[in-house]
Amino acid sequence: MSKWKGIANTAATAVCLAALALPARAETLTFVSWMKGEPGYGDWWNEVIAKFESEHPGVEVEMTKVERSTYADTMFTMFAGGSPPDIVHLAAFEYQPFADEGWLEDLGPWIERAGLDLNGWAGQETCEWKGQTYCLMLLYTAYIFAYNEQALNEAGVENLPSDWESFLDAARKATRDTDGDGVTDVYGLGLDTTGGTNMMHDMLHFVLDAGGAWTVDGEPAFDSPAVVEALTRWKTLVDEKLTPRDTPSGDLRQLMVEGRLAMRLDGPWIYNILKGAEPEIAENLKLAPSPFSPPVGGTSNVIGMPAELAPEKKELVWEFIATVASAEMQQRFAQLGSSPAPRPGLDYTKEIETIPYFELFAQANDAAAAAGVDRLPKGLEIEFNEVAKVVHREVQGMLIEDRDPAETGQAIQTAVEAILQ
Amino acid sequence: MNWPKGSTASVIDFSSPRHRTKFGYLLMAPAVILMALIIVYPILLSVDISLQDVRIARVGGASEPWTLANYRWLATSAEFWNAVFVTIKLVAVVGGVSLAIGLGTALLVNQRFKGRSVARLLVALPWAVPEVVAVVIWAWMLDSSFGIINWALQVSGLLSAPVEFASNATAAFFAVSAVMIWKGYPFVSIMLLAGLQSIPEEHHQAAQVDGASTWQRFLYITLPGLAPVIGVTMVMTTLWVFRDFAIIFVLTRGGPIGATSTLSILTWEQSFGFFRMGQGAAVGVVTMIICALISRALVGRFAQSVH
User: Is B143 within 8 Å of A246 when comparing Cβ atoms?
Assistant: First the structure.
C-alpha cells in the first residue's frame, strides 16, 4: 500500500511541477492596426511582437489589419460594442474622442511605476488630454518633397522648387500629355482632393507657408488672410488641372511609383513606398526638403490600452508598450521606418550612413518641431472629422461654383464656429 | 413513465382541438424569439439612441435621459432635407429607369429565339456580381484623371476635357444613378420575367382571335397581369435605393457638395464620420418610417389593382 502511496505522491508532484513549468496561462493579446503588412512600419511591428512573445512565453499577440479608411469607424464600433482590442493603436489625431469617452487607460501611473522617462520624447505632449496621459507617441514626423527627377528635367524644370512661385511653375511645366492623344499622362503635382484629414494636411502646406494656421490660440482661423491665400493657391492648382482629381493619397503615391506624378509632398513613409517602383523609374524618384516653410509636421500614431481590461491583461499590455518604448526597439524603428524614432538620445550614425534620406527626415522633423507645427489643430481635436468635412464641402463649392476664396474662408469659419457651439 | 404516488401531474394533449393552437405557438416560438432578437431589438435600440443626446452610444452602457433634441436638429438641418430630396430623386430616376429597362429586357428574353438562355444569363449578370467589387471597378472606370470612360470619350473626340464624375454635382448624381441602375435592373427583369411566365398564354391567344393589336394585348393583358409583380418589385427596388450605401460611398461618399448624399449616407456620416450617434440614429429611424409608409402605400395600391 505504501508503495502505491509513494507512486501516487510522486505522480502528483510530477503533475504539479509540470503545471508550474508550463506558462501560467495561454494568453492572447488582440492588436488591430492599419500598418500590418506595410513595408517598414509593418516589419517593425512584426519585430516588436516577436520580441515580446519571446520574452513572454505562452502569450501570443494576434495582429489584425484594418484599412486606414475605415479604421476609426471600426475602432469606435469595437469600443462601443464593449470588445476593444487589448492593444490600442490609433492615429494621433483621432485618439482624443476615445480618451474623452473614458475608454482609454490613464498611462500616467504605469509610466511612473516603470520609471519611463518621457522627457524629450517627440510629440508626447499630444498624448496629454485633459491633464492625463492616454498614450505613448509612436511617431512625430515632418513632410518632405518627393519628386521624379526625369519628369521635371523633361519638362524643363532646372532647379527644384524653393517657394510657391517656383513650385507652381514646376507643376505647370511638368503636367504633360506625353503621347499627344489629348489626355494628360503625367501630372505635375499630387494633391489629395478627396476630403478628410489627408486633404487638410495637403492644404496645410500652403497655410503654413502663408504664415498662418488652422487655429490661433485654439480658436478657428479659417477666414484669416493666410488660409484665404492657401485656398487661392489650392484653387489655382486644381482649376489648372495640375493634379489628378478625386484621387486619394494612397493612389497618388502609386501614381508616383508608376512615374505618372512629378511631385508630391508627403511623410517619410513615402520613401519605402517609392522603393517598390520598377528600377528604371525608382532611379528617378528622389526626396528633398519641402519648398514650403515651415514644413507640415506633426504627431502620427499612438499606442495605448483600453480602460476596461482585466488587471492581468493590463500588465501584459503595458509590458508590450514598454517593449515598444525600449531603446532597442526604438532603434529598430529608425532603421526599418527610415525615419527618426520619438525616443530621445538614440545614436543615428549608422542610420545616416545606411539610409539615404535619414538626415533629411531628421532635419525636416527639427524644422517642423521648432516651428511648433502639428497637423492636428489645437481646439478642434474632437470635431476634426466634422471640420474636415466642412472644409471639403466648401472647397468643392469654391471649385465647382467658382467662388471667391475669401468668401469660402468665411463660410468655413461660420460653419466651424457653429460646430463648436 | 411511472408517476410517484399521489402526484397530480397533468399532460397537455396537443392533438385535441382545444390545445392545437398552443402547439402551433410552441413551434413558432423559437423563430419568433429569434426574429425579435435580430430584427426588433436593433430597431428598439436605434429608437432609444435617437432619443438620447449622445455623441457615442455604448451598448449596455448607462443611458442619457430621453429628449427630442435629435429630431429638432433633423427638422432644422439643411443636410437632412437635402438628403431627403436626393433620396427621392434617386428613387425616381433609378426606380423608373430600372423598371423601363427591366420590363424591356424581360419582354425580350421572354420571346423564343436562338440564344435565349445566354441572353437571360447576360441580363442577370450584373445582379450576380458582388456589389462592392462591381462598384470599385466602376470607380476605376469613372476616374476623372485615368478612367477608361474619360479616356474613350476624349480619344474618340466626343469630349475635349475629362468629365469630373466625383467633382461635378450633376455628373456625380448621374454616375451614381447609372451604376445603381446597372446593378438594380436585372432584379426587376428577373421578377418581371417570372411574372410574364405566369400569365396564361390562352389570354393572349383569345385576344389575338378577337383582333387585339400587340399594343392592346400588352396594355390590357400583360400589364394588368404583371401589376402585382411590378408592385412588389418596385417596393423592393425603392427600399434598396433607400438603404444602399456601398455604391454611393465608394463612388462619391455623398459628394460633391451633397449632390449624392442620401439618407443612408447621412446616417453613416453622423454616426461614424462625426460620431453623433444620436443624430445618426434619428436619421435612421425617420428613414425606416418613410420606407414603411412607402411599402404600405405601394403594396396596398398594387394589391387593389389586382382585385
Answer: yes
Binary contact (A393, B273; C-beta < 8 A) = no
Q: Is the CB of A399 inside 8 Å of chain B's CB atoms?
A: yes
Which domains are seen in chain A, by residue range?
A: 27-140+299-354 (3.40.190.10), 142-297+379-420 (3.40.190.10)
CB A351 within 8 A of CB A334: yes
Q: C-alpha distances in angstroms, A345 versus A40, A70, A332, A342, B193?
A: 22, 36, 14, 10, 74
Q: Cβ separation of B144 and A244 shorter than 8 Å? A: yes
Residue A85 has pLDDT above 90, yes or no: yes
Task: Identify any residues that bridge with A176 across adjacent strands, giving them in sequence order.
Answer: A186
Yes or no, beta carbons of A80 and B168 under 8 Å apart: no
DSSP result, A339-403: S--SSTT---HHHHHHSTTHHHHHHHHHHHHHTT--SS-TT-TTTHHHHHHHHHHHHHHHHHTT-
Q: How far apart are CA A391 and CA A236, in angstroms?
A: 17
Interface contacts (A, B; CB < 8 Å): 82
* Contact indicator for A187, A205 with CB cutoff of 8 Å: no
Per-residue pLDDT averaged across A154-161, rounded? 94
User: Per the CB < 8 Å rule, is B154 touching A385?
Assistant: no
Q: Which amino acid is at B284?
A: G
Which residues does chain B have within 8 Å of residue A393's beta carbon, measured at their own beta carbons?
255, 257-258
Q: Give the number of C-alpha atoms closer than 13 A to the C-alpha of residue A224, restricted to the C-beta side.
A: 17
Percentage, residues of chain A above pLDDT 90: 63
Instruction: Report which of A163, A169, A158 is spatially closest to residue A145, judged by C-alpha positions.
Output: A163
User: pLDDT tens-digit profile of A363-415?
Assistant: 998 888 888 888 888 889 888 888 999 999 999 999 999 999 999 999 999 99
The answer to whether residues B91 and B234 touch, using CB atoms and an 8 Å cutoff, is no
CA dist B248 and B254 (Å) reads: 6
CA–CA separation, A302 and A118 (whole Å): 14
Chain B residues touching A389 at Cβ < 8 A: 269, 273-274
In DSSP terms, A65 is beta-bridged to: A33
CB atoms inside a 10 Å sphere around CB A219: 13
Residue with cell 518604448: A325
Whether residue B144 and residue A246 make contact (CB cut-off 8 A), yes or no, is: yes
Interface of B with A in 169-188 (CB under 8 A): 169
How many residues are given for chain B?
A: 307
Q: What is the CATH number of domain B69-306?
A: 1.10.3720.10
B146/B162 Cα distance (integer angstroms): 9
Check: CB of residue A151 under 8 Å from CB of residue A262: yes
Residue B42, chain A, CB below 8 Å: the answer is no
pLDDT at A24: 47
Nearest by CB to B257, from A97, A183, A397: name it.
A397
User: Any chain B CB within 8 A of the CB of A179?
Assistant: no
Q: What is the pLDDT along chain B (307 residues), one digit of tens a residue?
A: 455 555 555 677 777 777 778 888 888 999 999 988 888 888 998 999 999 988 877 777 677 889 999 999 999 999 999 999 999 999 999 999 999 999 999 999 998 888 888 999 899 889 888 988 999 999 989 988 888 998 898 888 888 888 888 888 899 999 999 999 999 999 999 999 999 999 998 988 999 898 889 899 999 999 999 988 998 899 899 999 998 999 999 899 887 888 999 999 999 999 888 888 899 999 999 999 998 888 888 776 666 655 5
Inter-chain contact B145–A244, Cβ cutoff 8 Å?
A: yes
